UniProtKB/TrEMBL annotation, chains A, B:
It holds the Pfam family M20_dimer. This is N-carbamoyl-L-amino-acid hydrolase. Transmembrane segments: none annotated. PANTHER family: ALLANTOATE DEIMINASE-RELATED (PTHR32494). Homodimer. Belongs to the peptidase M20 family. NCBIfam families: hydantase. It comes from Muricoccus roseus. SUPFAM superfamilies: Bacterial exopeptidase dimerisation domain (SSF55031), Zn-dependent exopeptidases (SSF53187).
Length: 398, 398
């Protein structure tokens, strides 16, 4: 194994210039910048002897030409809007470095992990056979409403076949990623060996009220959808801490009032709500709590609330043998500076885990910031993470 | 006096076709449809012998050519987006009917009562000298951000002089309007003689948090601006009913989370909040309550909240002599079917009241609905309102 960490950093620096925004990157899925980054990746793959393909959903796969057993290594190239330079890119460039070091690794950039379209993870779900043509037909860009089919056509991907994971080819799949939290930083640690990826259940909660003038409608007469939404969110804020697990998170990321005008009582409110946990049991309990709170809202408030599941990802435990290889590598290369930890964020590996043993390695995020252009990680930590990933892969491949 | 109520209804029917949307009207301020309605009004004014002018902020004034004492009568022509056919239009067309009946009435359509730009009431505030050139420079369309200066230029109004109320010309100002509530309908009444117009204080409450990934950031680490906003709104929901007056209203019409994406913790939240009351004392008490709740939020929550006044309109009592004239007219024409009542909505008359005695007459709104295309009033009620308005004006002019 001949790991070139300078070239690894150079590749990250080159990639961050494609769609550069302040010190971060703006590379929405299928945008010209995103497609440029995919072409750049295919050129790098070809340079180091991998066989590059782009498929009908935008996945870029670079196949190792030698004998196996093979590892699959990768992550995603597109970013959230005006986001960071490492989220996704680190795992792809890290996979490239493994292959360049001579390991029998296929490198993959999974398309749309960041959910610019529909519920996201289009690429990893397509690879495992969990993305139907009907879902592609129905999906739209969540910012501007562009149909996914139109976006694929504009990116030159329409009509290309979609790849599937080749049965029996891989011993496992690896993904290096920034932590997107502050557990490592706060603990003075440099490496996280991921024990599993949390599940996430995401919901649309919609409230139907009546749009009225704010002045002429007495408080007693109103059906204010915004007030009903606020009361339910307050009930969640009160009740979830009593029902959650140790590392559960829950978030209202999106609220839309209609018409959202200062002098008009909101006639409709939409809330996008999610919770995450590593335990299915905890998630079942929280789902029951949420359903009970919505029922209570419907008994108490004048604006009917409806609860619609938007997406659901099951928790994915990491493979013990792969974790062991990474842990041994960390003991050698970062003694006393690593820990096992769950991933609170979901990743492509969560979907790949339905077909293959998976493992993930975390490096620290400065200030825990991600999905923002100020996201950053020390270059020393990037290099250390790369070394542990490579040594862990070497040991696992045996 | 020779009141033509058929022609009055015809004018309303003609006007609702300009910018028709379903059974309502979409005539945003300075849009082509709004400007067409202003030109239509100037033609009607000229037909009945008034001298029409449009000024540099879009006010249309039709001056009576005969001797005084004069009344000023009017309301506004633009509408909220996709709103009703009577809100504003009724007062303008009602004024036109007074002038056509031979009364010494100047008719005015005040521009942008509906606050498409800045804090609204551009026309009535301009007429009383309460709209500065600096405010015009700084104002933008609140939906698309178009600078007010650009909108005035596109409407052909740039460079026209702005009118001022002529000192000593008017004995008072009258405005007929739909109730925008259900007090009349629920009481089986057909006429409201307005006793005064509520004051309104409007605020921007902004919360600064930190934008982070929803999965990787533990609940304890978060600075979720959306949660902080929700908690303050819940405190208002709990505390305001204990501090308010009999007819106080309070409303959160607008909430904006940034970036408002399902998987990102809101880094910033903006809330537009207002309250209304007929009593300055009650409003002072509510303002003190609001300030205390924001201070409490800043002691308790991790996301600093700032409270910024956006607009403030003082309560405006109606003129006793004008109210008496309208009440006597209602006793004759609608015995047992009228009541005195405050206006919970603000109107151009609130600003005109700073210079002239004012009075307002309400007709019922079906279901209390306004600012929505389903807004409506029975034609019999419109005609009765018109008759009471005319008879009240005749008596007041004496």
């Amino acid at each position: 194994m001949n790991l070139d960490t300078d070239r690894f950093l150079q590749d990250l620096d080159t990639l961050r210039r494609i769609g550069a925004y302040k010190t971060g990157v703006h590379r929405p899925t299928y945008s010209p910048e995103d497609m440029e980054s995919r072409r750049w990746l295919m050129q790098r793959m070809a340079e180091i002897g991998l066989e590059p393909t782009i498929d009908g959903i935008g996945n870029v796969l670079g196949r190792h030409r030698g004998p196996g057993p093979h590892l699959l290594a990768g992550s995603h190239l597109e970013t959230q809007n005006h986001a960071g330079w490492l989220d996704g890119a680190l795992g792809v460039v890290g996979g490239l470095a493994l292959a360049r070091a001579g390991l029998p690794v296929d490198v993959c950039a999974y398309a749309d992990e960041e959910a610019h379209f529909g519920s996201g993870f289009l690429g990893s779900r397509s690879l495992i056979g969990a993305l139907s043509e009907e879902e592609i037909d129905a999906s739209r860009n969540r910012f501007d409403g562009t149909p996914l089919r139109d976006a694929l056509a504009a990116a030159g991907l329409a009509g290309l076949p979609r790849l599937s994971l080749e049965e029996g080819r891989y011993k496992g799949a690896l993904e290096m990623h920034i932590e997107q939290g502050t557990q490592l930083e706060n603990g003075g640690l440099r490496i996280g060996v991921v024990t599993g990826i949390v599940g996430v259940r995401q919901w649309l909660i919609a409230f139907e009220g009546r749009q009225d003038h704010t002045g002429g409608t007495t408080m007693a007469e109103r059906r204010d959808a915004g007030v009903a939404a606020m009361r339910l969110l307050h009930a969640i804020d009160t009740e979830f801490p009593r029902q959650c697990g140790e590392r559960t998170t829950w978030t209202t990321g999106r609220i839309v009032l209609e018409p959202n005008a200062p002098h008009i009582i909101p006639g409709r409110a939409e809330v996008t709500f999610q919770f995450r946990d590593i335990s299915t049991e905890v998630m079942d309990r929280l789902e029951a709590t949420l359903r009970a709170l919505v029922r209570e809202s419907n008994r108490r408030d004048r604006c009917p609330a409806t609860l619609t599941p938007l997406s659901r990802a099951e928790p994915a435990p990491c493979d013990p043998a792969m974790m062991r290889a990474l842990t041994e590598a960390a003991e050698d290369l970062a003694p006393g500076a690593f820990q096992p930890m769950p991933s609170g964020a979901i990743h492509d590996s969560q979907h790949i885990a339905r077909k293959l043993p998976v493992a993930m390695l975390f490096v620290p995020s400065k200030g825990g910031i991600s999905h923002h252009w100020t996201e950053d990680t020390d270059r020393d930590d990037l290099v250390l993470g790369m070394k542990v990933l490579a040594e862990g892969a070497r040991r696992f491949l045996g």
